[in-house]
């Protein structure tokens, strides 16, 4: 893999899902509702890559002074968030992630500035530190990163996962994350040493098509995922939360990317699309028939591909 900092070709460690638990061998952090990024920082530059290796630095100009907060060259794993009324607001940060116009980006950076919340360090000075225990990496993070310039460090507690989850639920936050203290950082891999415990469920799903309203606007989105065998499975429809911005992007995509055959014939009057668009749905839990209970659309994502939309069957 070579020098992690110079190559900039790594993706974040991933998590399995779990129920709340207490364990002295784990730390517990808030699950932040934002966009996962790796930050490559030295004295001169800040470079941000999303989970698909895309350089998104230009989208978040207010984060380009984070290098004033470090002692040595480093790679930080963290979340880009936007806070509204004291809570992470995915809709706001998602709007920014889809911007391309520099003037609008700079205007948004002043009006709704984002924060980078660091919760791990992968590289420090000239050393790959991914094989050190998590609790050691946490200490290195605190010793070498000073908060400020839209950069903060994720706090954690020990053992009391159940109480912490109850607090997150009470505050209507996304949930919590549990990480084993001795865990190594497994680049691009999913591990049961890292667990996400959600208050509400989020899923990245494929936009297969939409049912238009009477005036031709995008109304209900038809969503799907891949199972472990690579079969396309229907997740159902969602109409709440589909913003005008997403409607416009989907209609623009549909101009040259419709197909004649239905992905799911049970749905009628659908504009079926080539499988390229991915977005996130937010819902209580899956129904017995595999649908979504009380789904809300959170927005399109450009940091995910259809290959990321795999749901494994629970044992």
Could you give the topology of this structure?
Layout (H helix, E strand, L loop, with lengths): L3 H4 L6 E4 L5 E8 L4 E7 L4 E5 L23 E8 L1 E2 L2 E2 L1 H8 L4 H10 L3 E10 L2 E2 L5 H11 L6 E3 L3 E3 L1 H10 L4 E6 L9 E9 L2 E12 L5 E9 L5 E7 L5 H11 L16 E2 L5 E6 L12 E6 L14
Could you give a short description of this structure?
With 315 residues, this protein is an alpha+beta fold.
Characterise this structure:
- With 315 residues, the chain is an alpha+beta fold.
- It folds into two domains: 4-198, D-amino Acid Aminotransferase, Chain A, domain 1 (2-Layer Sandwich); 201-308, OB fold (Dihydrolipoamide Acetyltransferase, E2P) (Beta Barrel).
- It has six helices and 19 strands.
- The protein has helices at 4-7, 90-97, 102-111, 134-144, 161-170, 244-254; strands spanning 14-17, 23-30, 35-41, 46-50, 74-81, 83-84, 87-88, 115-124, 127-128, 151-153, 157-159, 175-180, 190-198, 201-212, 218-226, 232-238, 271-272, 278-283, 296-301.
- The strands form four sheets. Strands 3, 4, 5, 8, 9 and 10 form a six-stranded mixed beta sheet that branches.
- β6 and β7 (87-88) form a beta hairpin.
- The radius of gyration is 20 Å and the shape is globular.
- The model has no long low-confidence stretch (mean pLDDT 93).
